[in-house]
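User: Fold both of these, please.

Assistant: Here is the first one.
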Amino acid sequence: MSKEKQLVIRPENELDLKEVYKAKNGRMKESFYEQELQKLHIELCKLQNWVKKYDKKIAILFEGRDAAGKGGTIKALKEHLNPRGCRTVALPKPSEVERTEWYFKRYISTLPSGGEIVFYDRSWYNRAGVERVMGFCSQEQYKEFITQVANLEHMLIASGTMIFKYFLDVGKDEQKRRILRRKTDPLRMWKLSPIDDKSLSLWNEYTEAFEKMFARTHTHFCPWILVNTNDKKRARLNIARDLLSKIDYEEKDQTRVCLLPDPHIVWQYSEYQHHSDDPTQEILRQFKERKKAEKSQKKKDKKLQAKEQKELKILKAKEQEVKKELAKSGKDSKQKELKAPKENKESKANQESKAKDS
């Protein structure tokens, strides 16, 4: 089977091609990425034509950790789409008036109209992630959101809106590297937000919040698609493939374009519960183990601290005894020094008297 034919029917993770990946770090090569992305851009244009022709409505939600690549992914997918038929929604923090209104109200007006594709750079799921972890909403507001969101999505889908929910995940070390780059690169500084640094220190809290969000809002009619974005290029290709593979648009080319997403990069939340190669599952496992270890360590630390304090007291007591002994020995030596001249004089006098007698 030729290499070209292999690319058509299988994603690159199954290919034994040295030109696909960099040997140094395993990241995808720019040349391969551009070739594959161009093919997918053509398919995305076909999708947009189909959406416009039949007045379809598509909402694509991108959630994830800070610096996971949400904005870059949207930019890559939209690059060759007609801007009149697609737009990006990235809402700022709610105004004072919006805070008094029904939470979903400000998102309703942003939903796609017939013939339109809308990309959400963070969505209504802000409440389950950032707002909950950072304390920007109350527990009552969070509970209200979590009980309403699935019903809202069900109604939107029933009324003809297609919703795709992608969660972009990134490793802790990679996230730290990207945030540091934002601080030092003048062309990326605009991406930096006050909560970026906090996201690193609140890694475990975010992990727990996202896990609860998945468990409560992953449904058969609107599932969560998890994406490993440690390699941005691989992630973007596989998000495009996943999206295109789920929509039956006209003139879809499955003979020259690979539309099979890499299962090690993209998978449903229901699959990841049993996904052996799932980095997010590994993070959650590590988080639980770390919590257990921290609890155990705290007990050990308390015992160790008590032991150290006891030993410190003993050492201090011994130190005091040594000081006393040194002080005492110092006094004795001084007294000996004072007595020595007298003893020498007396011995000399005795010797002289003995000499005279003789």
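And the second sequence with its predicted structure:
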Amino acid sequence: MRLVTNQELNEHREPGCLAVLTDRKYLHVGNSCIKRTLRRHEWISSRVSPPSTFPQRWKNDAAILQYLATHTNIPVPRLQCVFEDDGAFYHCTELVEGVTMDSLSEGDKKVVIQELLQHVTTLKSLRSDTPGVPGVREAGGKAAPSLLCAPERISNLHWKPNSCWQPRGSVRGDFVFCHNDLAQHNVIVDRDTLKIKAIIDWEFGGFWPEWFERPYWQRPGSSCALEGEEDDTQRCRDWLVSYCDEVVMPYLPTLHEKLGIPIRDDRGLTYGLPDSQRRETTSISEDGAESTSRDLGQNTY
């Protein structure tokens, strides 16, 4: 059976669904802005899997929203909930009305940047002698291990796409609070007053070395080095490897897998079986070559 394309998924998305990407969905339901990971049967490719780090990234985002709302005046969306359901992870916040900064004229952007710099100064005033994300908790309220999620300029399909990073207990230093994806598309603005309504997408945030934060808000585009800009990718990777332990994140189990009930999808992939009986799938290794799940030494579904 032919796999559907991302365009086809968007053309036939359900009511309330704003967009379907290759690894997540965005929905607007009532006064809620919801994003969720795709379940395995929604993946558009059986050969390249979405990163398995999204649940941890969104747990970090949720903890950071609560932390900043308590300790600063930085405008952030109000967190409603995060939860797991049948192999998908949900992140829900109150909807923030406005436009993204990258849609403004250059003159209006200069006005917004003046306020944004005040919030950046506030972030730099938040300091810790250890790296990590404050306030991350398990579903029952128990404190969870602090796992850093590397910004996408550092971790991508060709380097540790399914890994988070646990700072070693011996690491001490002067760490500041970073957003690590503070680009214009993550700043929501009131079009009339040009006041910032919310800064969003904090999933790569936390206490990091100060130099991890790059001023990507100064120009439109993604949070990675463009031509002529300093590329600090290797420096950041070296820091993670030197001061953190790599934690390969598993994919969320579906209800069938939790119950041990095998189910076969239209692509011939079988779920709900023990690891030893699962059909091997392929993913992208660090050097860009395809490898089987057995080669990678981790569970790929």
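The longest helix spans residues 106-125.
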